[in-house]
Amino acid sequence: MSLAALDSPPNRPRWTARLKEFLIDRLGLETFAELAAKKRVPIHRSTVFYFLGGMALFLFGIQVVTGILLSLYYKPSPDQAFESVRAIMTEIEYGWLIRSIHSWSANLLIGVLYLHLLTTFIMRAYRRPREFTWITGLVLLAMFLAFGFSGYLLPWNQLAFFATKVGTDITGGVPLVGESMLLLARSGEEVTGDTLARFYSLHVVILPLAVLAVLGVHLYLVQKHGMSVPDAAARRYGGPEHVPSMPFVPHFLLRDMVGWYVALGLLAALAALFPWELGTKADPFGAAPEGIKPEWYFLFMFATLEQTPSHVFGLENKQAVVLFFSLVGLVVLAVPFLDRRADRGGPRPALSFLATWAVFAFVVQTAVGLGLLHFGLSVSVFVSGALAIAFRLLMLWWCALDRRRMSA
Amino acid sequence: MRTRLRVVLLSGLLGAAAMFAAGWSAAGDAAGAETAAAADESPAPPPPPPPPVPKKTETPGKSPDAPPKAAPAPPPPPPPPPATKPSEKPAPKAPAAPETKAPASPAAKALAKPGERGQPRPNQCLTCHAEHAEPRLRVTESDMAGDVHWQKGLRCVDCHGGDPAWEEARGAHAEEDGFRRLRSDSDLTKPPDPVRVVELCGDCHANIERMRPFNPSPRTDQLREYWTSGHGRRLKESADPAVATCVSCHAKPHGTAADPGKHGVLAVADLNSPVYPKNVAKTCATCHADAKLMAGRQYHGRPIGHQQYDEWSRSVHAETLLKKGDLSAPTCNDCHGNHGALPPDVDSVANACGTCHGKIAGLFATTRMKHAFERVGLPGCATCHGAHDIRHATIDMLGMHDGAVCVGCHDKGRHGATVAGGEAARKFRNDLDGLRRAIEEAEAKIEEAERLGMAIPGPRSDPRADARMYLRKAGDALTAARVEIHGFAAAPVEKVLAAGRETVAEVQESAESAIRQHHARRIWLAASLVPILLVIVVLVLYIRTLPPVPLAAQDRTPGNP
Q1: Do A40 and B559 touch (CB under 8 A)?
Q2: Does the pLDDT of residue B47 top 60, yes or no?
């Protein structure tokens, strides 16, 4: 036995220390170790919102893993796509589980992203210097919506076929470039096998690469600027620097992991109890299925299109709706620049009211799209507006109570 | 020269159709049309007036060098008045139709008149006939607009002959110019002579030389077929003026209901043609649903009746043709023939049905049942399925219960039917019911599995197949067994049913395995949730062991180094 061996701690195998040293020397892992040691997460009443980003990242990881597994068996051609997914569901060991988790996880991911966007807005986390974090986040959301849209067609079933037809039709409504976009999306005038190949390429090559690039920038910016502290918490502790915080590793990371395991259990339960159905094979010459609808995260747009009269201000309803949601998207993108009092922590009544209205409109229109409500467009606007006003009044009252309690 | 010949032939064709149109009613109650009305405007025309000054229209745009028309310059003398009044005429003899010598067709004549084709010819016929007092002789250009002959450039003269250049009736209807009379007398109150109508059409349509310019491979057997039909035979035998001729079915009436003329022969493929598949039955019903017209008429000693259209309208064939729009579904002419229309004989009913139901007819033809039917005069398929009112054939027709067709003979031993035959029918029925029930149960299993969200694996013999699609094989087997029933032999039916039962069993097994798997997944879920929960518990416990977080930040910006 050598002297070095005698000097090593008796309860630690010598080879692990050597391996650690080897890796640190060559990969520069000490940088990450230092980063992890210094990173802290503020503690306040909205700390739970910080988990949403990590949750989205976890679900994205699930999508990558299950997507790779599915791609081993999936065949992207109109003749074989449906049959291959069917084989995944019935013949491949645990194929049903992988596909169901992939589908459910995609839906949960979009839901988490919507919530992440909302909570980021509520916490005003887009303030200087985090404008680009906000913008890259929105770009990521748009990309994941595109993931959902392109993935929906891949099983080549009747519902997906016609939903894609309707969805790409809406794309054709974009003013000026709509027709070109339609041709680009469909790879022709109709939804065909070429469209399937194009969507597959988009789903497994183009979007993943683009998402990895934008996600990298987004995560870099999050690390660079740190976690944003809400105004209320900063005021409460006399400045953001005085807000209590916990180390990211291990305190926050372990809590994050609890959330991930909960999500994993939820996914397993959904996949086992509610397997993602396959439907019938697409028949381009068949009749469109009754009550054809897109996925829930597009329903608000679909319902709005259904409610809109055939012509608005001289535009076709498709064009008008696409134009409207494009403008909404631009406004949301520009929020960091529209909220001019953000730096001073001043109020933003107009933005807050518009955002509240948008959230209620999203909920109401999704309910309309699901057929739970039977509103016309004007009724939807009125109801969501009334709910937004009521909610804002409630919040004002709540804040007044809170202030009184604090002063007491 | 070739073009000229073609136009001449065309004109012959058109002439045939237009002549039919000359006013014969399908119902037979209209007086015949006689285009040669010129001199026949009244039954007893006055003595001929002095020869009129010829008023022949110059051919517009005709070259002065063009050879004159064959017709002579002076108008032909009017036909002599009939020696006796029409009422005093002897009853028309039954024409020996095929042998009747019709005048040479205008088309044929035109062939012999070179030098005029290619030149626009005046057509004064409609000048008078558009305002003719007799509704059936009143023909306007719009009546002819859809006429297939008219559309191909044929005009009145091409069927009816005469000289269309004359503005005056007698000149236009001169027999010297080839004018064809459609009646043997001048009584306009009577329909035209059906034989002449048929022969007129046949002049072109039975002549390959004349038809070929319009169609490289035309049918020219219609006239020959017609004389073998019930209609043709009756015409030959009794000169029945109400008997259907070509125009009865092909031409559209343009006169009044009481006095319809018949012009305007539409192409068979024209949706408005009386002989378009969807319209055939109604066209036949014009006469055959007329109780008054059909009263007393017989075929082989049996009344023809007038209920056929009503019965057919209730049939599965009518439903398929008229409601589902399947033009291959049979209407009258598909079983009876069209130009050679005749009811099938007792021993040939199965052959008529076999035109479409070939497999069944083939099976039936080999059975003892067929010969037994023929012996006792039962009309094959129609014995069980009906003649015109043929309903959708179901399993319920089979067996020995009330409402089944077998019970009518096998229960009472009618027509020599045996009790053993009844037992066989009962067994067939039970076996078919058994497969039907099994298919329904398999469908229910598939639905249950699908309701649980399960994708059903394909059966053992075809793992890639869709269970529901695969189950159709069992449905096909049931249909095949129903077909095999017509062979009245147990073994082939049992063989097909066994294949169907095997298919059902495979699908049921697949559906049940999917349902079993759904239950297994719950167990799998419980098993997987346990380790997940354990990890969560361990994590939470570990978090509790971590050093407490300071209540306020020390000297660092929250969140970031």
Answers
A1: yes
A2: no
Residue A347 lies in a domain: no
Q: Please list, residue by residue across A383-394, b when 16 or more beta carbons sit within 10 angstroms of its beta carbon and e when fewer do.
A: bbbebbeebeee
Does residue A341 form part of some domain? no
Question: What is the Cβ-side half-sphere exposure of residue A117, based on CA atoms within 13 angstroms?
Answer: 21
Containing structural domain, residue A141: 39-308
Of B463, B551, B558, the CB nearest to A229: B558
Token look-up 């004349």 returns: B210
| A contacts of B524 (beta carbons < 8 Å) | 272
Q: Which of B455, B522, B551 sits opposite A86 (nearest CB)?
A: B455
Does B133 score more than 90 pLDDT?
Answer: no
Using one digit for the tens of pLDDT, what is the confidence trace for A206-224? Answer: 999 999 999 999 999 998 8
The CATH number of residue A221's host domain is 1.20.810.10
Least confident range from A8-12, A205-209, A356-360, B442-446: namely A8-12
Computed over its alpha carbons, how large is the radius of gyration of chain B? Answer: 38
User: Is residue B40 pLDDT above 50, yes or no?
Assistant: no
Least confident of A206-210, B246-250, B336-340, B549-553: B549-553
Q: Is residue A237 part of a domain?
A: yes
Q: Is residue A231 part of a domain?
A: yes
- Torsion angle of alpha carbons A19, A21, A24, A29, nearest 10°? 80
Q: What is the chain B residue with the closest CA to A273? A: B522
Asked if residue A129 has a cis previous peptide bond (ω within 30° of 0), the answer is yes
When divided into structural domains, chain A yields a total of 1
Whole-structure pTM value:
0.61
User: Which residues of B fall below an 8 Å CB-CB distance to A?
Assistant: 450, 452-458, 463-464, 466, 521-522, 524-525, 528-529, 532-533, 535-536, 539-540, 542-543, 546, 549-553, 556-561
Q: What residues of B are in contact with residue A40 (Cβ under 8 Å)?
A: 553, 556, 558-560
